[in-house]
Amino acid sequence: MGSDTSESNTSNFDAEKFFHDEEFRKQYPEVKMPPLCFLESGAKITAHEVNKSLTVKFPVHENQTNPLGYLQGGILSSYFDNVFGPLSFATLRKPCISIDMNVNFMRPLRSGEIVTIRAEFKSKSRRLVQLYAEAHNEKHKLIATATSNLMVYEP
Questions:
Q1: Helix H segments across the chain?
Q2: What is the pTM for the complete model shown?
């Protein structure tokens, strides 16, 4: 399971194994893990520091670009969301719902590039988590930053 994985920058984690948790599935049978949007994005988990951070790489495809040929901002925002959610899941073992997300864009990305996003916790409480993330291109240049607050879902 992903929460037992120490940080590793040399290999990709299997998403099915990272999200696998029989107890979670029994308690929340309506929650689909891993999320289909995570799988369809081409996301690859490259590092996980237990209770601290998650790093994921995303390929940029031509059908995700704006008329200028750059990655559309909403797609990049979804990448951030696809790191915040799994980090919260791996740590809290409960579903979390985004309350807000703020994204600041610095540089563009083109089709064929890879963006790496590393998210970390800024604070955690029983009902609310606050996260921060940075996106970098393959040259390690800062592309964007994001913050998000998530509410812990309790039916």
A1: 15-19, 22-27, 36-40, 73-92
A2: 0.87
